[in-house]
Design brief:
With about 350 residues, this protein is α/β, with parallel strands linked by helices. The chain folds into two domains: about 220 residues, Alpha-Beta Complex (DHBP synthase); about 110 residues, 3-Layer(aba) Sandwich (Rossmann fold). The strands form two sheets. The chain has an eleven-stranded mixed beta sheet, with helices on both faces. It has a five-stranded parallel beta sheet with strand order 14-13-15-12-16, sandwiched between helices. Strand 10, helix 7 and strand 11 form a beta-alpha-beta unit. The longest helix is centred in the C-terminal third of the chain and has 17 residues. It binds threonylcarbamoyladenylate and magnesium ion. Magnesium ion binds next to loops.
Length: about 350
């Protein structure tokens, strides 16, 4: 079976195709769709069989829970046993949007969807196509990122086709997504809210509204004895096929080091891939150089990160070197993904 691909935009939605996709989901099938963060692989969240199909299509371990997407605020109470005041406050500020909240689950949500946990991850996306699809499907769509487990998350429908084209029923192509990094996950099952995955909504933005918010210890420490609380964060992820190393430090020192690696590879008749920025791309004489965006516009870096990682899979490179991107607001999210893609290989130069 090859997935049917239907193109549309938020301004010109093909409601017939959305109705059809909704029917596929109601009948237990799988549909990939755009959200403002990354493409999602959707199945009916209340149908245990559909969740099992999602795990199988992605090659994902079934103890790694799925996010349930809603498109109307008042449906939250159907799946969350209890909604703390702080969670309501965050929802008011950031929903619909790139925020996922972990709450105690109601029985209506099957254990298959939550990887056996008694909590449920919920997100109300702002993408209009996603919202219409969720409503057409009955209100609750489980959707992990629509990539094969371990690969970079998809930011274009072509990425979904590449990974899952033979494993699912339909792909809604809504063009390239806006943000390009998965949602910020905040856990409300403990006294103090905890960030389990950094995203477009930064720790500072959360603290401004909630006061005390912690980062999950498993995110801060690379000690493998400290397990991240979001099961998915413990897996190696986002990895391109060639080995990726991050080089951090002053710009001049980083250029010197990466250029040295590039020259060494050239001597051996090979070439490296280089993840640069608009500001530095012209300063690497050897290797395949890709600009990820501009340091003047950190959103452009988040927007292109997964795309650039995927592009290198189609290039003949022996290794990839990337600059580091500790940008002010979403740097934490960008570096979290980049470090995972690099298996935490990072060199500091001065
Ligand atoms: O932006 C996003 O969140 C995208 C789009 C499609 O909405 N979805 C997404 O889903 O990134 P996924 O499955 O790739 O990542 C979900 C993460 C995983 O790390 C998973 O372990 C964690 O959320 N998670 C889900 N339910 C959880 C729960 N009840 N407790 C702790 N972590 C949970
Ligand atoms: Mg994912």
């Amino acid at each position: 079976m090859r997935a049917e691909v239907v193109k549309m935009s938020a301004d010109h939605m093909d409601m017939e195709a959305i109705e059809k996709a909704g029917r596929i989901l109601k009948e237990g099938g799988l549909v990939a769709f755009p959200t403002e963060t990354v493409y999602g692989l959707g199945g009916n969240a209340l149908d245990p069989q559909a969740s099992m199909k999602i795990y199988a299509a992605k090659g994902r371990p079934s103890d790694n829970p799925l996010i349930v997407h809603i498109a109307e605020m008042d449906r939250l109470a159907d799946i969350a046993e209890q909604i703390p005041e702080k969670a309501r406050l965050l929802a008011e500020h950031f929903w619909p949007g790139p925020l996922t909240m972990i709450l105690p689950k109601k029985d209506a949500v099957p254990g298959e969807t939550t990887g056996g946990l008694d909590s449920v991850a919920v997100r109300f996306p702002s993408d209009k196509i996603a919202q219409e699809l969720i409503k057409a499907a009955g209100g609750f769509v489980a959707a992990p990122s629509a990539n094969t487990s371990g690969r970079p998350s998809p930011t274009k429908a072509e990425h979904v086709e590449e990974d899952l084209g033979d494993a699912i029923d339909m792909i809604i192509d809504g063009g390239q997504v806006g943000i390009g990094l998965e949602s910020t996950i905040v856990d409300f099952t403990e006294e103090v809210p905890v960030v389990l995955r950094p995203g477009y909504i930064s720790l500072e933005m959360l603290q401004e509204i909630l006061g005390e918010v912690r980062m999950d210890k498993g995110l801060l420490i690379t000690d493998s004895n400290v397990r991240p609380k979001a099961p998915g964060m413990k897996y190696r992820h986002y990895a391109p096929k060639a080995d990726l190393t991050i080089v951090e430090g002053e710009e001049a020192a980083v250029l010197r080091e990466i250029n040295r690696f590039a020259a060494e590879a050239k001597e051996l008749g090979m070439q490296v891939g280089i993840i640069a920025t608009d500001e530095t791309a012209g300063k690497y004489p050897a290797g395949i150089v890709k600009s990820i965006g501009s340091r003047e516009d950190e959103d452009s870096i988040g927007h292109h990160l997964f795309e650039v990682l995927r592009e290198f899979d189609h290039c003949n490179v022996c290794a990839i070197y990337s600059e580091a991107f500790y940008t002010p607001r979403i740097g934490q999210a960008i570096m979290n993904r980049l470090l995972k893609a690099a298996g935490h290989k990072i060199i500091s130069v001065s």
